[in-house]
Amino acid sequence: MIKSPEPISPPHRFMPELSYKDELRFAMEELALDPKVRFIGYGVRIGGRALGTLKNVPDWQLIEMPVAENILVGFAIGLSLKGFKPVVFIERFDFIWNASDAIVNHLDKIGSMSRYEFNPTVILRIVVGNRQKPLFTGETHTQDYTHALRHMVSFPVIRLTTAEQIRRQYRNAYQALGKFSTALVEYKDLM
Predict the structure, then answer these.
(1) What are phi and psi of 86, to 5 degrees?
(2) Concatenated DSSP letters for 28-43?
(3) Which of 2, 38, 88, 141 fits as disulfide partner to 137, beta carbons 3.0 to 4.6 Å?
(4) C-alpha to C-alpha distance for 116 and 118, rounded to whole angstroms
């Protein structure tokens, strides 16, 4: 008589929880499945591929830019108006104010100013620098301005404080493209 095998537990029971950085990497790979998605920033193609989170994204979807945050966001607005789905990588939240004109006066307002004839939307990927890990990068590279940015724009500004919320929030931001932008705040200390 053939004995039936013991039931096997579903595979998810054996899967370890993914790290914060792994979740970011998988979220970026998921976004990259859409050929209209472009990742824009400094350090996205050379010098680290956005802290290693874009290592499996094809080069043709990565647009390396100079360290000029206002230009990054302005360029992304232009891409969005041409039908692309930009994800802007801003490695230090401290320098978001260099892009505040493009974010507050253009990205957030072009839709309402044009009665939605034009409605550029992007995903802003903003990183708060590390305070707890080795090589503390200093006071001007570790500030979190989430609260202030929320009061300046009408679109969501969401803190990513756990690995479990990363992919869900990036999916939500992707699904919102075409309707509104989203800023997602990442924390280097959690990577």
Answers:
(1) -80, 140
(2) HHHHTTSTTEEEEETT
(3) 141
(4) 5
- 13: pLDDT confidence band, cut at 50, 70 and 90? low
Domain spans, the chain: 17-190
Structurally, at CATH architecture level, domain 17-190 sits in 3-Layer(aba) Sandwich (3.40)
pLDDT at 104 over 80: yes
pLDDT over 60 at 164, yes or no: yes
Report whether 39 contacts 59 (CB < 8 A): no
**pLDDT of 12 strictly over 70:** no
Which ranges of 82-162 does DSSP label H, i.e. alpha helix? Answer: 100, 110-113, 146-150
Inter-CA distances, 33 with 58, 80, 121, 124, 190, Å:
10, 17, 18, 18, 25
